[in-house]
Design a protein that fits this description.
Rossmann fold, 6 helices, two-stranded antiparallel sheet, alpha/beta, AB_hydrolase_fold, UPF0227/Esterase_YqiA, six-stranded parallel beta sheet, Esterase, 20% strand
């Protein structure tokens, strides 16, 4: 089994959630986390390349925020399963708020956000999803994304509400038992 963590916008594979999952799961399965600090079109290439030799039935994505949007696109494309952590649902609507050079959290690196990223993201949108592929965590005090949009988009998927939690997901390690349970479940 391969667990692939897809980090959010201006984050890294070594974010707090990424480190917690790496520590929790790397002895039980193969843990991968590509760096997705690129535009949506380039992220597609990275994800296709990273998964081309993997059996989708043995792959589970964990996508956080923008990584959740990417995880949905990839899960629908290759028919694997995904855990979504406060997933972005319409990133093209906010890209213009971040145009220009942006600093990547806890690094000295940057990403230049270009206007064409909005259209690239829109082209990745999945209007229809297969709900049985997903487990969705939603923080009700998310200060970055409107959690109710994700609740609506993933309405037919198993959802776990995290009352009072922020976008970062305070005490993320408390989510690990449900993630592990999802990993070992036989897909429907």
């Amino acid at each position: 089994m391969v667990l692939m963590y897809l980090h959010g916008f201006r984050s890294t594979p070594f974010s707090k959630k990424g480190q917690i999952m790496r520590e929790a799961f790397s002895e039980k399965l193969t843990f991968e986390a590509p760096d997705l600090n690129v535009g949506p079109k380039e992220a597609q290439k990275i994800l296709i390349e990273a998964t081309q030799n993997l059996d989708p039935s043995q792959l589970c994505l964990v996508g956080s925020s923008l990584g959740g949007f990417y995880a949905t696109w990839l899960a629908e494309r290759i028919s694997c399963r995904a855990v979504l952590l406060n997933p972005a649902t319409e990133p093209w609507c906010v890209i213009n708020d971040y145009l220009g050079v942006q600093t990547i959290a806890n690094t000295d690196r940057t990403i230049e956000v270009l206007p064409e990223f909005a259209q690239q993201a829109r082209q990745m949108n999945c209007e229809r999803i297969h709900p049985e592929r997903y487990l969705v965590f939603l923080s009700t005090a998310d200060e970055v994304l409107d959690w109710k949009k994700a609740q609506k988009k993933y309405a037919d998927c198993p959802q776990i509400l995290l009352p009072g939690n922020t976008h970062e997901i305070n005490h993320f390690e408390q989510c690990l038992p449900e993630i592990e349970k999802f990993l070992v479940e036989t897909p429907r």
